[in-house]
Amino acid sequence: MLLKVRDLNIHTGGPLIAIIYSKDADQMDIHYGDRILLKHNNHKAIAVADITHNKNTIRPGIIGLMEELENKLNAKTGAMVRISIIPKPESTRIIKKKMSGKRLSYKEFLMVIEEIVHNHLTESELAAFVTACFIHDLTNNEVVSLCKAMVVTGETLKFKRKPIMDVHCIGGVPGNRTTPIIVSIIAAAGLLIPKTSSRAITSPSGTADTVETMANVSLDIKKLKRVVMKTGGAMVWGGALNLAPADDKIIRVEHPLNIDAEGQMIASVMAKKFAVGSTHLLLDIPIGGTAKVRNVREATKLRKRFEYVSKSLGIKTRIIFTDGSEPIGNGIGPALEAWDIIKVIKNDKDAPRDLREKSLVMAGIMLEMVSKAKPGRGYELACGILDSGRALKKFTQILNAQGRSPRRMLKLGKHVRIYYASKSGKIAFIDARALSQIAKAAGAPKDTGAGVYIHHHLKESVKWGDPLITVYAQSTEKLHHASEVAKFPALFRIN
Amino acid sequence: MLLKVRDLNIHTGGPLIAIIYSKDADQMDIHYGDRILLKHNNHKAIAVADITHNKNTIRPGIIGLMEELENKLNAKTGAMVRISIIPKPESTRIIKKKMSGKRLSYKEFLMVIEEIVHNHLTESELAAFVTACFIHDLTNNEVVSLCKAMVVTGETLKFKRKPIMDVHCIGGVPGNRTTPIIVSIIAAAGLLIPKTSSRAITSPSGTADTVETMANVSLDIKKLKRVVMKTGGAMVWGGALNLAPADDKIIRVEHPLNIDAEGQMIASVMAKKFAVGSTHLLLDIPIGGTAKVRNVREATKLRKRFEYVSKSLGIKTRIIFTDGSEPIGNGIGPALEAWDIIKVIKNDKDAPRDLREKSLVMAGIMLEMVSKAKPGRGYELACGILDSGRALKKFTQILNAQGRSPRRMLKLGKHVRIYYASKSGKIAFIDARALSQIAKAAGAPKDTGAGVYIHHHLKESVKWGDPLITVYAQSTEKLHHASEVAKFPALFRIN
Fold first, then answer.
1. Model-level ipTM above the cut of 0.90
2. Scanning every residue of chain A, which has its alpha carbon at the shortest distance from the alpha carbon of B95?
3. Given an 8 Å threshold on Cβ–Cβ distance, is A132 in contact with B127?
4. What is the pTM of this model?
5. Which residues of B294-323 are buried (b: 16+ CB within 10 A; e: fewer)?
6. B57 vs chain A: nearest CA distance in angstroms?
7. What pLDDT digit, counting tens, does each position of A91-104 carry?
8. Nearest neighbour of B256 by CB, restricted to A32, A253, A257
């Protein structure tokens, strides 16, 4: 059947959708969700049919095309396209198989992932896949298969030199910005470390957001390679690289469903490492009541799975458990976190000791992993690189190679409110999650200068009237928002 | 934040969606799939946010509204609407609970069903709910809860007179149109039977499609009540009545996912019965290799569940197993099936005996269920009503009350092709599913006169050259389509 195009001027960013009037659909026996093949001159595209009963949307004889489809077909309003119905993609059968609790092979995952990448699955089908993988959690072998399938359907990075170092933290701890410090030390030691990070989804800042206050993080794969070849290191936003693109599309559905499937998470993390060719990975699992992993039992279970998957992918992985009971460093929010990092790298005397310490321990382990340092001597070597100023030099070199950000991004918000201790004593508890919410209410991460500065940490003694936190915002309105979220005294428990 | 409306002129028929430009969404910390509250003058609506990064779709400062939202807000292009973010509906927490395998209460089902009816769930959330209910199949108590929740959120029918008779068949057998015959007999016996039926989804005809060749089936609830009060019976399309509207929305997602969850199916069937106030139900489960239920074991399991749910809903239900190994009657397709029905009701001598027999047996059981006939005497009474012409009189009365369809809908397709037996012998197998496909390829159910007429049934003897089936179509093109689907000799096995 020939239908006349109506350009809907809508960009879905997802499934390729064409809207047909119900009577026309009936004629062709096309149902909602069916796959149709569209042809226009020499252009072809597969779309998912949406059916409307409303002539105001699409009149009989007309087909409404979302922008992506229009571009694929090179068909503007008024063009005639030929429509035919085609069978459902094989991937829908595979999704059904997963629903019924069966295991999927690499080939099957690849089929589904390819359809996801090409936007051939409907929103419902993708949601059903994600739900089924959550309910019947993936086996370790399935995680490996999913991981590989996500990598081969995206961009990859290759270096002739080995080893390729990498580091990752299973999030949930505010201010935990060891990455730029570790990258600087490891690259200064002569190793390659093309580190990709994510932006915040629900937190007040992701590593990519923090680094962006200092340098451009949206590099494509070629530019990234050039930076790493030149400096040994990089700290960029993974999202710009099209590594494992199916992962972003899966997370886009997982997030509103509030699904946090363990197998899917492991595949997501390891795919990014595999795609950049990492040979050695240090994985940090912080444990704490408000962190992603709550206790040692959970952490141990997760470690086993990561070890299995790493081994199968040929990545040498060391996994450490760290303290996730309170924020690391003093700042929460992009610029505030950046200042913590700068102070540590510059060896400022008021640099946050916990951030320095954690970065040195982790960099030390990494240096030992590839025998840059003898067993037990990694920390010492890392310390030397940091204290001698070699890390700072490397840090500057990397930022310059990526391209510096405008200085204003590092400026803190002008509107400030300080919260003081209402009694004297020892700090027994800090609600890290609540601090994140205050920073977000103050405008982080969009307002790079917004956030929370923590004056005192767990187990420190404070006197009545000592400052506990300072909130920075770029408008009085947002400062007010933040103050509404700040619930004292529950936020800091002083005994 | 205030945004200016752009009318997208698209009617989704489903979730209420508003599209916002990414930077604006960032400002308000709105993510894809978040719920937003829109206000315009005194109008309010809750919508699901879709985010675009493409200025061609939605420019900064603009909000794109699907037609349903525009109507709810009474806001045309250029109007200003105030946007604020609101928490996710409670139902998303409940969906997550079902995903993790826990049971849901009536109150929880009601919350989800209400959100479904009001289009407050996204396509993904609905798909996740359906997937979770499929994977962790519902318990019988959950089926009862879901059923009640679907009924209270839709229209219901109430009569002062009791009993209210009903009959239902768990589909899959082509041509199985006992309903109009049973309704006529039962109503002629002085009982109330407001029978609702469905249209074809993937089959060549649903009962509603078949009846529509003779009478109007799209009645609203008031009109239906009037017809039943006047004649005692009705045979209408359930879809026009808004009974259990959530069910249609669930099926709309289930169907493309090819999900056929047993619990959901039972709730769907029983909700329609409960909504029209049925007190007595005869449920027919045909068993056959190509029917929905394949063997006695499956049928027995299903019977137990239906019995439990019926009892909880206070509906007296009798369940029978029937032969689903071959089509019932001679015609497959709306008009062809209607002619079978008419012949049976008129006592024509070439009326299909199997259709007559099955209808009489079922009507007989129903008459015994409410003591209109003594045990064992129901068949006899039904037979008397049919043979005396009282059923025909009632049938005509009901069709007239519903409003007659144009005569042309009963006309058979002009283009005909007959298939003959290629050898002599006894018919050992008829592929009912393949016959349905031929009827569909010929144009059924849209072309009401299209379909397949079966000349010989299972176990009958045929000679070389005897006609086996006649295919009717309204164009040579469709007749050709049908002939491509007709795969002889596999279709009829003659031994």
1. no
2. A257
3. no
4. 0.86
5. eeeeebeebbebbebbbebbebebbbbebe
6. 5
7. 989 999 999 999 99
8. A32
